């Protein structure tokens, strides 16, 4: 979906600020980013005015985060330009606090408060990872040590790390928590070597009661960093400190790492997170909509997003954020028409335009091994009625047809019958895993007819 020719950026900035709060946490947002203002500029440029006394710190420290939040709300075509107010003083800016060393791990004030166990949506795909993370948060160093969380990007690993940190800070009796990525660990290590502060570097990590390390797959091909990481791991493990590691692959698949390190990764609990099923995706969207007070003109919008986006929670929530942004800019209601437009812009379909009702009927009939004639017949047997209701539900989600038009396409049924069918399917999908899997298979066949699977 193309951006409007002239975007009212001050209005869009409201959505971007909400995304920034979620990204950096409320306290950091209020301290550094709450004074940033958006100005109208060219259609593809968002001009942000940053107070002169914090300009260099905000741009240097949070510039990329701001750009990422703008891209999530308005799309990657919009560029960000930072400036200072025209009446800014000419004196030197006040010094801003900076990390002691490049790459130093995140301290206790930088964890995202919205990444909590309460906000983590539990499903069959992540139940073990959630339970294990909660266990180590309650009993650091005693439950599973190390805890190794394995999942592709965008499925909630970082959420669980922050949830552990927030829980320990709230209930851990003063325990020290540190979070870092392997990239930051490497940068910090290199800086410590060059500045002859290696002992301070070691204390930073080895004095932590709970050390959270993201993306350990990037240890590959970093021999010196790997060696230091190994000794840090041992120092913490041998003193009963808790380690939690995340990775996009299993320890045994980290073939470029030393075997001794892979063995240590596997010595605790390895918990994987799989892509969420439909019911989990829908619950995530409903919780996000409630948390952000999103006014939906049609609740089926959430079902549509959960149907179209299946593998990545970050993309799933990003689609909802983008939809709200376009609603804010255009003042159009958040309904299926707008949702389909926004989703088509994010995830172009393999066909031109939305699928037709006959195509949906054919896909449903083929899946259930019944004829299209039976699907649109007056029959009310379960073997026919349930597939018919699924077909009506998908016709409402995936096409632009009105409810009366859908009813006519299914043997002249009434508007009320279509509403009843859609409501029944929506309810069933949240409680019946087999029904959700069936609808997902049929949807894939409709939207990606060339994808035949394995």
3D structure, described in words:
By secondary structure, this protein is an alpha/beta fold. The chain folds into four domains: 9-83, DnaA, N-terminal domain (GMP Synthetase, Chain A, domain 3, 2-Layer Sandwich); 127-272, Rossmann fold; 278-346; 357-447, Chromosomal Replication Initiator Protein Dnaa, Chain: A (Orthogonal Bundle). The chain has helices at residues 9-24, 26-33, 55-74, 127-138, 157-171, 182-194, 198-206, 223-238, 259-265, 278-291, 300-308, 313-330, 336-346, 357-368, 372-375, 382-398, 403-409, 415-429, 433-447; strands at residues 37-39, 45-49, 79-83, 147-150, 177-181, 210-214, 242-247, 269-272. A five-stranded parallel β-sheet has the order 5-6-7-4-8, with helices on both faces. The protein has a three-stranded mixed β-sheet with strand order 1-2-3. Helix 10 (278-291) crosses helix 12. It starts with 8 loop residues before the first helix and ends in a 7-residue tail after the last helix.
How does the SSE layout of this entry go?
Blueprint (H helix, E strand, L loop, with lengths): L8 H16 L1 H8 L3 E3 L5 E5 L5 H20 L4 E5 L43 H12 L8 E4 L6 H15 L5 E5 H13 L3 H9 L3 E5 L8 H16 L3 E6 L11 H7 L3 E4 L5 H14 L8 H9 L4 H18 L5 H11 L10 H12 L3 H4 L6 H17 L4 H7 L5 H15 L3 H15 L7
Parallel strand pairs: 2-3, 4-7, 4-8, 5-6, 6-7
Antiparallel strand pairs: 1-2
